[in-house]
Design brief:
12 strands; globular; single chain; three-stranded antiparallel β-sheet; binds fe (iii) ion; about 230 residues; mainly beta; seven-stranded antiparallel β-sheet
Length: about 230
């Protein structure tokens, strides 16, 4: 398989949300697309490990919020790199409730769609949900955020549940390192050299200085330069 060929596929970035008043959840998806115009239908692809997958099945619907080009790192961090199992992602952001009772994220959103779940396909690691569009709105005429812009300009990275996640092949090993911790100024995540960042192939015992230049915060995706010594 040539990994670089996959990089030639283009995508946008969206927040897909679902739930009811008891529990709202949402995640960042790049695999959202219109499948038909009559009736108007969207497809979204969701990892089975995402809490939102089971929430969509329970609620029988979902919303898609199209993110603007200059989306805040905090929004990417909250929906892309944190699990709703531990936190309420809707506590600190702007959203509204659709006519079906599902939440619709308005933070950094330029357009949204409220959908009724009409079909789903199990494709192994992920589920493809087909939704019929019930309501939608063009919020502003800002440009949408594309996956390419997020990766090349914003230096963001894919959450590990994304269908496009390829891991990180860089790994650094140094026997004697200073165990200085660093804190992310965007989300507050602490990088601990004793733990490393195994999800990105960074073994325990890797000093912050020895992290590859393209390493980014595992919580919010912020670049290395956003970290300060604790
Ligand atoms: Fe962070």
């Amino acid at each position: 398989m040539n990994i670089e060929a996959f990089f030639k596929l283009s995508y946008g970035l969206y927040v897909v949300s679902s739930g009811d008043e008891k529990k709202y959840n949402g995640y960042i998806a790049n695999t959202v697309f219109q499948v038909t115009a009559e009736p108007p239908q969207l497809a979204v692809v969701c990892n089975k490990n995402n809490l939102t997958a089971s929430v969509i099945q329970k609620s029988n619907g979902f919303s898609v919020s199209v993110l603007q080009k200059e989306t805040k790192p905090e929004t990417m961090g909250l929906f892309g790199f944190q699990s709703g199992t531990n936190i309420n992602k809707f506590e600190k952001i702007n959203y509204k409730t659709g006519e079906t009772g599902i939440p619709i994220v308005l933070e950094d959103t330029i357009a949204w769609f409220e959908c009724e779940l009409v079909q789903q396909f199990d494709v192994g690691s992920h589920i493809v949900f087909i939704g019929k569009i019930l309501n939608n709105e063009l919020v502003t005429k800002e440009e949408p955020l594309t996956y390419a812009y997020y990766h090349t300009v914003k230096k963001g990275r894919a959450p590990k549940n994304a269908p496009t996640y390829q891991g990180n092949t860089n790994s650094v090993k140094k026997p004697d390192v200073k165990y200085t911790k660093y804190k992310c100024l965007i989300c507050g995540h602490i990088y601990d050299p004793e733990v490393g960042d195994p999800d990105s192939g960074i073994p325990p015992g890797t000093a912050f200085e020895d992290l590859p230049d393209d390493w980014s915060c595992p919580v919010c995706g912020a670049e290395k330069e956003n970290f300060v010594e604790v």
